[in-house]
Amino acid sequence: MSFKGKHHTPEAREKIRQAGLGKPGTMLGKHLSPEHREKLRQAKLGKPGHPQSLETRAKISAAQRAARSRPEVRERMSTLSRTRWADPEYRAKKSRAAKEQWKSPEFRAKVNESHGRPEWRAKRSGPNNPMKCLEVRAKHKEALSRPEVRDKMRAANTEMLERPEFLARRNAAIKEALNLPEVRAKVSGPNNWNWKNGASFYPYCPKFNDAFKERVRAFWGRTCCLCLAPENGQRLSVHHVHANKEACCSEESPRQFVALCASCHSKIGGARKAKAEEYRVHFQEMIALRGGRSY
User: Fold this and answer.
1) Is the pTM of this model over 0.90?
2) Where are the domains of the chain?
3) Average pLDDT along the chain
4) Measured at the alpha carbon of residue 139, what is the angle toward residues 135 and 141, in degrees to the nearest 5?
5) Distances (CA, A) of 187 to 144, 182, 192, 241, 276
6) Distance (Å, rounded) from C-alpha 242 to C-alpha 167?
7) Burial category of 239 from C-beta neighbours within 10 Å (exposed 0-12, middle 13-18, buried 19 and up)
């Protein structure tokens, strides 16, 4: 049997493909109707090459795991995978296929059910987590250091957050999780990543009153200092640049304030330490350009 067909012209290959559509012995079964494919699948169940029993599938799975544990096999598979993913057309094809697959509610439900199984979680948790491997973490860190990787991830996240169905599904999952007592205990109080020793419960100093807040809003032209959104029916929040509630009454603390819309104020309040420091420096620069005044 010759494999020289790859040297045929595109026209000849298309002619051969059209001639073989639906014929037995060809690899073009994917063009058959769904009913025909299901009929063929049912006819092959239990036959050699199409195992059906759980025992047979377990044996095949064990044999495959044993093969993948050999260094030479892993290296060969890794080389083949890198070669394939280096092809832009292959990446685009796999991306389209994955997006189409995830549109199916049945597929998402199947994945969620599979990942919720205790045996699956045990394989991916603790020391079995691949991200706990120093070699994997080093490769991951190196990849994230490349601007093109970060830009690609940022674009993918932005595109995903613009899909209403994803936002609705995410919000529903978060609300459902927060209703569980064990989850709330993990993200509340000192266990929360944004915990600041209970600073949110401390009262503001007496001088930080409504009249003072109006002076800050007026100084910044009643527009958000971050997104430049105007005050439209809802008063802007007044943010302490140095996160000190006693700033108005303290002689040591800098008295620097900015006006923010509710969305930006929430984003800054929930930012992690490094990002919060970036915001603080940005606001200090804005205040410096205005002669060091903020109200």
Assistant:
1) no
2) 90-125, 205-289
3) 82
4) 115
5) 27, 9, 5, 26, 19
6) 33
7) buried
